[in-house]
Write a structure and sequence with these properties.
Blueprint (H helix, E strand, L loop, with lengths): L4 E8 L9 E8 L5 H11 L12 H8 L9 E6 L2 E12 L6 E13 L8 H15 L4 E4 L21 E2 L5 H7 L3 E12 L11 H7 E7 L5 H7 L5 E7 L5 E9 L4 H4 L3 E9 L8 H14 L5 E7 L3 H9 L3 E12 L1
Parallel strand pairs: 5-6, 12-13
Antiparallel strand pairs: 1-2, 2-3, 3-4, 4-5, 6-14, 7-14, 8-13, 8-14, 9-10, 10-11, 11-12
Length: about 350
């Protein structure tokens, strides 16, 4: 089944030695027969370090089509004859308590065009149609690049341990959106650390923390509807630093096994998706203590690399991460356009 036809666009596609040939690019919404073609577009378009390699359409089903809010109208494809040559994927952010969508915040989560059809207006045409879809649904602000919590799609497929926006390693993304009037709103730094050795951390507070706290590990609980949708089929493991006397947790971190990235990275990666310290326990070294214990634990498992992300404006978090032996490998940015 196909959604409604959108439009046609005449884009130049001139093979060497042939003059005056213009191919017609057909734009439409998603059809149920599109997944194999989308796999090809994905693999040809997203070749940077932060994208998974799709072996079949299974991961698209898990991380895109199966989401409760997936709308075929928001997945716009470009076809040159019978071949899909590009797509744009648009969605919306969550409302205040994560119980539903906020359609005033529109997000362009992915934009891909195969190399043979770039610089011919296909990406611009897909973006314009995605923007029009978001505005029709009520968006007053448009974002390009999925960054938590405005990340309806592509977690687990693009960006790494979290959704950091569009990565700098995808060098065409930033200039493309800036030419369309978007401006970079914020950035996330992406860090990785080999797990061939445990961390060496010296902190005089740690001995007392070992006496006061215990670390418990279990499935991530207390998730909102939005978080359940974003994480999809992935199981997050919650590490909680719990006060032995009160039974209350002071800090927690959620990790997931980044199996989707293994073929591209040739690594067994573990990603930290969430890190939280309760307000009255901050700036006491508890995050450092918890992360150090987590790194020791995953070092003893089969994992070979750990990834974590932090807002580039959060200097304390960046210094904490670097102090644990992580090295920056990329940066993601989210772009904004007033609708």
């Amino acid at each position: 089944m196909c959604a409604r036809l959108l439009s046609f666009h005449h884009a130049p596609s001139v093979p060497p030695g042939v003059q005056g040939l213009h191919l017609v690019i057909h734009y439409r919404s998603f059809c149920n027969t599109d997944p194999p073609g989308l796999v090809n577009v994905w693999n040809e378009s997203f070749t940077g370090r932060g994208a998974v390699v799709l072996r079949s359409a299974t991961l698209l089903e898990y991380f895109l089509f199966a989401k409760a809010y997936f709308d075929p109208e928001g997945l716009i494809v470009a076809a040159d004859g019978d071949q899909l040559v590009g797509f744009a994927l648009a969605g919306f952010g969550p409302n205040g308590d994560g119980s539903g969508l906020d359609t005033t915040a529109g997000v362009l989560s992915a934009l891909g065009v195969i190399p043979s059809h770039r610089k011919q207006g296909v990406g611009a045409a897909l973006t314009a149609r995605a923007e029009a879809y978001l505005r029709r649904r009520g968006a007053t602000t448009l974002y390009a690049g999925p960054m938590a919590p405005l990340n309806p799609f592509t977690f687990g497929l693009y960006g790494g341990s979290q959704s950091p926006g569009f990565l700098d390693s995808d060098t065409a993304a930033g200039p493309f959106f800036e030419r369309r009037g978007y401006f970079a709103q914020e950035g996330k730094l992406v860090f990785q650390r080999p797990l061939d050795r445990p961390p060496v951390v010296t902190d005089g507070r740690f001995a007392a923390y070992r006496q006061r706290y215990e670390i418990t590990v279990g499935p991530r609980k207390e998730t909102t509807w939005w978080q359940e949708c974003v994480f999809g089929p992935l199981e997050l493991h919650d590490y909680r630093l719990t006060d032995k006397a009160t039974g209350k947790w002071a800090a927690r971190a959620s990790l997931w096994e980044m199996e989707t990235y293994s073929p591209a990275w040739n690594e067994h990666a573990v990603g930290l998706a969430e890190l939280e310290v309760v307000t009255d326990a901050r700036r006491k070294g508890l995050a450092r203590f918890l992360l150090a214990q987590i790194l020791r634990h995953v070092h003893e498992q089969f994992f070979t690399v750990a990834e974590i992300q932090a807002a580039e404006t959060n200097i304390a978090a960046v210094n904490l991460i670097r102090g644990l032996g992580f090295t920056q490998v990329d940066r993601g940015r989210r772009f904004r356009l007033e609708a």
